[in-house]
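To illustrate the input format used throughout this study, we show a single complete record. The first block contains the structure-token representation of the backbone; no residue identities are included at this stage. The design step must infer an amino acid for every position from geometry alone.
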């Protein structure tokens, strides 16, 4: 299996797991990010919206065929989405909009996802 396929599949699995968690266990996800979020029921609705988006994007990555022009478009979008998620997590942490632990965790997860997306995209462009 090629490196790009491995990173794309890993990113898809992370997305599917996190998306499913946001959809079906938003309150548990909030608690894992910090007690303040777990006690705030306003977090549940956006977590579910995030969950379905993330789940669909993960399935999209799993169904891509190497060398397909559509694959490069999806992977470019993945880089943009995850880089934006990373920046948003850092920004929210700096402004105190997320508890420090939640900001660190979401920044790390988003940065890893960004790295996986970049490697996947570079490999797809090299293969085409």
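Output of the design step:
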């Amino acid at each position: 299996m090629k490196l790009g396929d491995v990173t794309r599949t890993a990113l898809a699995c992370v997305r599917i797991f996190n998306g499913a968690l946001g959809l079906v266990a938003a309150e548990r996800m909030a608690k894992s990010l910090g007690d303040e979020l777990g006690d705030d029921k306003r977090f549940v609705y956006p977590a579910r919206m995030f969950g379905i988006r993330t789940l669909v994007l993960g399935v999209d990555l799993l169904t891509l065929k190497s060398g397909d022009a559509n694959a490069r478009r999806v992977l470019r979008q993945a880089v943009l989405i995850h880089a934006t998620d990373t920046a948003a997590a850092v920004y929210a942490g700096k402004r105190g909009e997320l508890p420090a632990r939640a900001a660190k965790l979401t920044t790390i997860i988003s940065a890893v996802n960004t790295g996986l997306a970049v490697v996947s995209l570079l490999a797809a462009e090299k293969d085409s």
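Structural context for interpreting the output: Residues 100-127 form the longest helix (28 residues). The CA atoms of residues 69 and 92 lie 35 Å apart.
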